[in-house]
Amino acid sequence: MGTAPEGETVELRVHGVSGGTAEKILDHPVVDLVAGDRHAGFYRPRPGVGAAGGATPGIAVEAYRWGALTAGAAVRTASMLLLLPFMLSNLAIRLRPAATRRSRLFRVLCRLLAGTLTAAFVLSVVGVTLDLVGWQCVPYDGCRADRPYLSWLGDLPTGSRLALLSLVPLVALRVVWGIGARSARALEGFRPPQAHPEAVRAPDRLDGPGFWDDERTPAWLRQIHVAIGAGTLDASLLAGISAPDGVAGRVLFAAAAGLTGCGAVLLCLPVPATRRQVRRVLRPLSAATLGLSALSLGYAALARGVHPLPGQLPGYEGAVGALLGAQGVLLVVLALVTVTPRPPGSRTVLAGLGMPVVAAASVTIAGAFAATLVFRVADFLDRGYLPGPIWPDPPGIAPLDPPVAYWWAALAGLAALLIATGAASLTLVASRRRRGRRAGRIVERDYPDVTPGAASRRDVVRETIARSHVTDELGPILVTFFVMSSLGLATIAFDLIGVGPTQLVARLTRDPAKTTLLTAYVTDGGVWLISLLVIGLMILAFRSYRSAETRRTVAALWDLGDFWPRTVHPFAPPCYAARAVPELAKRVSALGARGKVVISGHSHGSVLAAATILQLPPFVLRRVALLTHGSPLSRLYTRLYPAYLGGRTLCELGDRLDWRWRNLWRDTDPVGGPVFPRSGDGPAECDVPGSRSVDIRLRDPVSLAIDPADTVPPPLERHWPYHTQSPYQAAVRDLTDRIG
After folding, report:
1. 619 with 584: CB under 8 angstroms?
2. pLDDT digits (tens, 9 = 90+) for 476-511
3. How confident is the model at residue 682 (pLDDT cuts 50, 70, 90)?
4. How far apart are CA 183 and CA 94, in angstroms?
5. In sequence order, which ranges of 339-403 are alpha helices (DSSP H)?
6. Which range has the worst mean pLDDT, 23-27, 491-495, 511-515, 732-736?
7. Which three-class secondary structure state does DSSP give residue 141?
8. I need a surface site. Which of 71, 242, 340, 535 has the fewest CB within 10 A?
9. How far apart are CA 419 and CA 360, in angstroms?
10. Which DSSP symbol is given to 383?
11. 628 bridge partner residues
């Protein structure tokens, strides 16, 4: 550990996603940890062994390596794939439109949708344990044969058997709770003060003192989601074993439904301002959850005279269909309230529809997970026979039959995936000529005189620039995905009237024998394709546990998804920026108290740098400047997150720094771009003189011809590195001089 000398000027480098080692960031083989720890630390070249690569003379270089917060632990990285639907639901609220009075309504709808994801997770485990195993398999000798792990369950009364199997969903609920809580403890950084009146009044501002508090809101939501999950399990259990005249069973069922409804109501309320208030409300809810679950299990264990009827667990199919139908309704409502007139000059992706698009993705993936789990277990218990409504059951084999709603869910996910893939192909083909013309104009401007020997190199550069603009063509693909997901979920309404895919086709065609069989094969194939995709994710999760390289690849995606604090789903992976941003702010404040600081953020690191600057007090900002390179701030984040990183926020960021800000970008960079583009479609909120000096365009490559002293032409740098070129050092020197 070390302390910066008085009067020292420091270039503090912050890497992007999958930033690699500290040695790579500093471009130096020997580094020392000077602050932080193995999860997130600050490094410098070891004294006496040379300067960092690309260092400006007279300026010390320090690197902040935060990548281990997401890729450092094998269990944490592998579990992120299992929590993907929860993470997407937590991300959706951050893509809401800016400057709207519907922020609270957005939050309520997203939290209700997240609550349905928890209920769907519990119902999928209930479908395996209580329905398939306890109700449909164990009562049949043919299903229990040669399976000693199931045969002993046949000796138990039905009520006791279902009560015992109900422990599995409770354990699964506790596991996903524990994954998030365990990871959050590993990523703990700096706890904000207990009370933040400013944060309570404006909780969605990046400069709010409590914005990066990732503990109070998840603590509030966690117990509510546990209550929703436990209430869903209790209601499913009681619906299966309660006799029509069982008064106690009906009372407990009503209490379980009331517990779930109470959780839904609490999701609509604002989060209490302090942790003490959170605990005061949640203690009665926790006691009610534990008490009702104990009473439900006890009632089921003592129930007598419960005889399994052929078919599914009573009430289970209706619950699955109603839940998936409710998700479809919530998605449509979310889309309707999201569509707002675009402000003049805005470049919001999908006119603000990013929120329902990501919410639809979370529901679609959760449905795929649930369908895969239920169908594959049913296929295993059926000893290889395809379970379904039209296949005849062999003698002695249990008539295993998953809910029809899961057939619709699997088909909806498959249709959305295939049509979105087709839309992506068509979009790329249709935009190829337009992107090529744009790239041609750039190449003609940068390289007006091209020798015959460099013509092939010019074509490579033009094609690279054209490919780098693919990022700007994602709108139609996402819209198509959202529409197909919503329509697919809407078809689940057929399940409420007992109509599955095969029955629907049989009613609509004149030759039901052939069409029904064909539909059954298509449906089975769709379920298998969805299952293979989910199984592929599971294999990737396993490889993340075994392979550090795979772990870094997976973590690169989660670096983007876990950047925001959890305000919707508490079981999502924890927010690493809840440590990274306060830690950066503390280190910059300490360095700024002794000298000048130039924060150099590459790619996603520029977003961390911007969030850090918005948290710094004015007396520290006077000693700080910002250098971004390969930055997606305007190209992606302003368009995806207009409520948090819109043009007005970027303009405020420049004002705070007195426009001590430089941004390096290349046309060949597929991620980065200008922060304040001058093409007329830039952020209208920041048309001030200071913004015009921020962006510095770098020609890439520097030349098409081979230098006489070299053997190959200059390389295409694209997204990395930037610090190896002289404009980088010139920008660092200029910013240092401007600090004063």
Report:
1. no
2. 556 666 665 555 555 555 555 556 666 666 666 666
3. very low
4. 22
5. 354-381
6. 491-495
7. helix
8. 535
9. 15
10. T
11. 601, 663
C-alpha span between 26 and 153 (Å, rounded): 61
Reply yes or no on whether the pLDDT at 197 is more than 50: no
Kind of pairing between the strands at 41-45 and 31-36: antiparallel
Contact between residue 366 and residue 502 where contact means Cβ atoms under 8 Å apart = no
pLDDT given for residue 151 in this prediction: 85
DSSP state of 343: P
Coil, strand or helix at 53: coil
Single-letter residue type at 599: I
E strand segments, 15-169 = 31-36, 41-45, 60-65
Q: Is the dihedral of CA 331, 337, 342, 343 positive or negative?
A: negative
For residue 42, the cross-strand partners are 35, 64
Q: Residue written as tokens 């961390």? A: 608
| Cα end-to-end span (Å), the chain | 29
Host H or E run for residue 514:
helix 512-546
Q: Could you tell me the two tokens for 237?
A: 């259990």
Helix 512-546 to helix 354-381 angle (10° resolution) is 100
Q: Which residue has the tokens 């020197």?
A: 733
Yes or no: say if 613 and 25 are a contact pair by the CB < 8 Å rule. no
Q: State which amino acid sits at residue 184.
A: A
Reported pTM: 0.88
- Cα torsion through 519, 523, 524, 525, rounded to 10: 100
Q: Which amino acid is at 232?
A: T
Residue 312 carries which DSSP code?
A: S
CA distance 463 to 664: 21
